[in-house]
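hey team, just a heads up i'm posting the complex here instead of the shared drive bc the drive is being weird again. everything in one block, sequence lines first with there labels, then the predicted structure for the whole assembly after. its two chains so it's a bit long, scroll down
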Amino acid sequence: ECVEWEVTDGGGSEIMKWNGWGYSDSKFLFNKKGQAEFTGKRYRLSGMIIPGLKDWMEGTFGANLQHKTPATPLLTSSAVQPATLNKAFLEELKSTGIPFSHDAEDRVFRAHGHCLHEIFALREGKFGRVPDMVVWPNCHNDVVKIVELACKHNVCVIPYGGGTSVSSALECPPEETRSIVSLDTSQMNRILWIDEKNLTAHVEAGIVGQDLERLLNESGYCTGHEPDSMEFSSLGGWVATRASGMKKNIYGNIEDLVIHIRMVTPRGVIEKSCQGPRMSTGPDIHHFIMGSEGTLGVVTEVTMKIRPMPEYQKYGSVVFPNFEQGVACLREVAKQRCAPASIRLMDNEQFKFGHALKPQVSSIFTSFLDGLKTFYITKFKGFDPNRLCVATLLFEGDREKVLQHEKQVYDIAAKFGGLAAGEDNGQRGYMLTFVIAYLRDLGMDYYVIGESFETSVPWDRVLDICRNVKARIIQECKDKGVQFPPLSTCRVTQTYDTGACVYFYFAFNYRGLSDPVHVYEQVEHAAREEILANGGSLSHHHGVGKLRKEWMRDTVSNVGVGMLKSVKDYVDPDNIFGNRNLL
Amino acid sequence: DKIRALDPMLKKRDDFEDMLEERRNSSDLRYALRCYTPVLYKGLAPCKASMLKSMVLQSDQLHHVIGQVSRETGRAADDVQEEASAILEEMAHCLQLSTVRFFAFTLSKVFKTLFRSICVNEEGIQRLQQAIQEHPVVLLPSHRSYMDFLLMSYILYTYDIALPVIAAGMDFMGMKFVGEMLRMSGAFFIRRSFGGDKLYWSVFSEYVKTMLKNGFAPVEFFLEGTRSRTSKSLTPKLGLLNIVMDPYLKGEVYDINVVPVSISYERILEEALYAREMLGVPKPKESTSGLFKARKVLSEDYGSIHVYFGQPVSVRSLAQGRVNRCQFNLVPRHIPRRPSEEIQSFVNDSAYRLVRAQEENMVLKPWVLLASLLLQNHHQDQTAGQKRGMVLEELTAQAVWLRDMFREYGAFLHWPVVLLDICVGGQVKPGEPHSTVTPEEELLSQAVIVLSCASYRNQGLHVFLRPALLASAINAASSNLKQEVFNSFSFLRNMFSNEFILCPGATVQDFEEACYLLVKTGALQVTQQELLVTERGQRTVAFLTSMLDPFLQGYQVVCRFLCEEATENLTEKQFVPAVRKFIIKHLLAGRLRYTEVLSSDLQKNSLAALLRLGAVQKIKGRIKLSKVTYSSVFLLRTCVNLTYNC
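-- predicted structure starts here --
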C-alpha cells in the first residue's frame, strides 16, 4: 500500500541503483538548507522533509554534514576483471537463442547482494571476482538447456533472483577458475495459472514479490507473503533461502505456503507428482530445496497457496513503559495464539529512531496533538522517554473480526502497562521497513556504516539475548577502537508459539578507522557468537550463505553436515552450482 | 607479555590512604549520620529486601525444585513451599541503613582504639565504583578474621559505595542479638553443610542469584570458606563461586565483575586463639557474652590494616574461549543441573586465580620477614641444642638481604622509612614460655609461640612458594637433569596442593615461573639439559628449602604415623588427636626438628593430600592405607627422606 508498484525489468540497472539500495530515483539526502529529504515519488515518505533526521544522525553517531564520504559516481568498466569465457559453452548457448551478456555493468550488478562489505566496495569502485556472463532464461525449458550445457562444458552456474541477499550468497568464490555464469531468473516472471477451487497459483520463480502480489490482487487474491525485501526479492529466492514474511501469523512462512516446487539440477528436474496438501512419503524433498541457497539447482516454478484479499486492514501501535513489559506482552499474545497479521516490538533506541524519521507535519493541529500525546505518555503516565518502547500492529481480515481481534490484543497489552498509541504510528512503523534500507546509503555518505542481522530464540531467552548482544556490540566497538558510541538496537519482529524472531541493527561512525569494514565484520562476527551463546539460531530467514557458514557444523552437528553434503554430492557431483554457500 | 605474566616485579600497585585519619579529626556521629548516596548498578530494578524474598519464592527454579521434592517425598507442594519460605526466612538479610549507621559509629570508635591506621587503596575504590555501575559485582575478600566483613562494609560505607550483602556462616546466628544486628547490616546466613538438601540449595542459590542479577547489592563472600588460621590462603571453596558465575554462563547478565580484596592485618585479633585451636584447644563457640569477654582486646595495639581492592575481573573475559555457553541451549535454564566438567574446571581455575590475586596484593610488613628469619634460626638452634637467638645486627643484616629478595620476587612490601627501633641491643628470639609443669605442657606452650610466629611467616610464603618448591625439588632430585628436577618438582607440587594455592593442572606454568624467578635473581642457571644452582644462589636456595622444610617434615611424620601406628579402626575424628600424641612423643624425644608440625592444619592437609593421592583410603569413616598404592606412601617417604639427606 505504501509502495507504488512497478514491474522491475530484468536488466533494469537504470531504474535500480548499481551501488546502493533500491530505485535510482529514491534516496535520502540533505538539501541545501541542511534538512533531510527523501526524493522520488514511489513511497509515502517521498518528497517529504524529515526535520528530525539531521539532529538524530549528529546526536546518535556524532556524524557531521561537513564530513562527507561520497560514492564513486560511475561504474568504470575497466576496473572489472575481463570475463573468462568458455568458448564451447558460449557457442552452444548461442544456438539455443537464450539471451546473454558479458557486459561489465551487467556482470557487476549480479556479483553482489546487500551486505555492508559488498556495498562499501561498490561505492569505492572496487570489484572482486564477478560472473563472467549473465544469461536470461525465459522459461523452465531454457533453464534445463542452460544447466545441461553447463554440465557438459563444466561451467559454474550461480542463480540470481532479486539480488537482495545479505549473507554473501551471491559473491563469486574468488578461487573459482571456471567460467561463472549468472543465471538471472528475472524474465521468468509470469503467473502460469490460478486455481480458485484449491486456492493455489502456479508461478514462475523469477517473479518479484511486489509483482506477484499486484498481479494476484488483480484477480482478488494474495499470497500474503511479504518479506521486508518484497519490492525486489524473488519467489525463487524465497524458496532457496527459507524466507519469512511479515504477515506469517496469518499466511505462514514460505515453507507453509509452498505446495509444489520444480527445480532444475545437474541430475535432472526434481518435483513431486501430485499436489496433496500433506504427504507421508519419507522426508519431504521440498526441505532439501528450501534453504539450499542455490547450491543444488535453479527453482523454476512454484505452486503457492493463495488467499482472497483481506476485506479490511488496520494498523495500530502500543506504547510500553519498557522493553521488558513489551516482550512480556508479545509472549502472552503468542501464548493465547491471537497474534495479529504482524506484531513488532521496537526497543527504545529504535523508537527514537522512528521518531526522528517523522516527516514534517503540515498542520499546527497535528503537531499540537503530537505534543499532547507525548505529554500524556511521559508526564501523565510517567513513562520514562529513555525506556519506553513501542509495538506496531497490523490486523487483517473481515472488519468485524479485525475490530474484535484488535480489542483482544489491546486488552492484553493493557495488562502489561501498554497504552494504545494510534494507527498512524503503526503505519509509519511499517512504512519505515521499506525506507530503512535507503537510509543506510545516506549514512554511508557521512562516515556511518551499519547493517541489520536476525536470529530466532526461545521466549525465555528473548530479553537476555537482546541485552547481551546489544552490550556485546557496544563493547566490541570500544575494543576495536571505534571513536564514537555505536547505534546498537533491536526489535522483536515475529512471534511463534515457542519463541520469537529478533532483529539487531548496528551502525557506527567510522571516522578515524583505517579499515572500517574489517572492524564492522569483526563486530558482527562477535555479535553472532554472542547470539549463538545465548541460545539464538544462526539465522531465522536471511540464510547462511558464505557469511555464516563457519557456524553450520556447530548448528546442525557433524552428521547433519554429512547429510547435506551427501545430497549435494549426489545432486551436483561436479559442483556446477558452485556458489559455495552453506557448506 | 609472557614476561609480564611471569614477572611479578612488573605489577603496578596503587598507593594507600589512611581512612582512620579523618575519623580522628572529625565527628564520628556526623560521619555516621551523613548523607549516604552510593552509585548503583545501571540496570538496577529498584526493589526492597522483602520484594527479593517473593522474587525468590516465585522463581522458576524454586518452583521446579519444590515440585520435584513434593513428587519425590509425597509431601504436599504447599508444605514444601512453606519449608522453602522458612529456609529463606532463616537465611535472608534485611539490610537497613540505620543499623549500618550504628555500626559506622561504633566501629569508628573501636577501630580507632584497636588500630593505628586502616589503609585503603582509593584507586581501587574508584575502580570498584565504576565496576558497580557497569555490571553486578561480587566482592571476594581474603578471610583472616571475624573483623573482615564488618571492616569491608565499614570501608564501603565510608567511600559511599553500595553496601554488600554478605554470605555468613550459620555460627553467628547463635549469637542472638549480634546475629540480628549483622543481618540488618547485610549478612545472610547459610548452613555450613547442606550436602544433599536439594531444597536448601535451591533456595540459597536462587537467593544469591536474584540479588546479583538485579544488581540489588554487591554480593560478598569468602572464597576460602572460613578464616585461615595460619595466614596462608586456603584452598578455595567452589560452591558460591559456581552460583555467582551461573547467571553469566546462562546469559542472564552480560557480565559479572569479580573484585578480589586483600585484607592484611599487621596483627590479627584472633592470633593467639588460632594457635591454641590448632594445638587442640577447641575454639569457644561464638556467643554474645563471649564477645563481651573478648573486649579486653580493646586495650591492645593491633597495628595497622591494609585493604587493597584489586582489579575487577570480568567473568566474561575469564570464560572467553574456556566455556561454551551453548551447553545451556537444550535444557531449560531453571532446571538445576550438575555443572559440566568444562564448567567445573573453569570455576576451579578461576577460583585459584582469584585467590592468587588476593595473595599478590597482600601487604607484607617487616614482621613477616623477621618471623621467617627467626623461625629458621630457632630451628637451627634447636638442632644444635642451643638457645642463643640472634644478634640484632645479624638479624638486621639478614632482614635487609631478605627484603631485597622479597622485592625481587614481586612482594608487596611495606617497609618503614625509619629503621626499626624495637629492640635496643640484646638478642631477639621467639619468646620464652612461662614456667610450666610437665614437659608436654612446656612443649605445647612453646608451640603456641612458634605457631603464632609461623602465621607471620606464612603471610609471605606465597611469594616464594614456586621457587621454594623448585629449590626443594633440586635438592630432592637425584641429578641436575631438567627432567628429573621437573619430576620431583611436580611430585612436591602435587603433594602440597592442599597446603598451598597451587592450581591443578598448572604444573608446567609453575615450573616455568619458578625457573624464571630463580634465573632472574641469579640463583640458577638453566641449560638445555640441566638446572644448576650458582655460587651466589646457594644462600637463596638454602633459605627457600628451609622455608618448606617444616611442611615436608609434617607430611613425613603423618606418613610415618599412618605406617607405624595407625590402627585398623582409626576414624577421621580420632586422626588428629592420635597423630598429635604421636608427634608430641617424637618431639619430646628430640626426633623431630619442627614444633610446627603440631599444627592440626598441617596434619589435616597432609591427610587430605594422602587421600587425594590414593595412598590412604576412607572406608566407612575409617582411614586405611591403600594396599594397592602402598608404594605411593613409600615414594612419599623416600622423597621426604631424600630432602632431608641434603
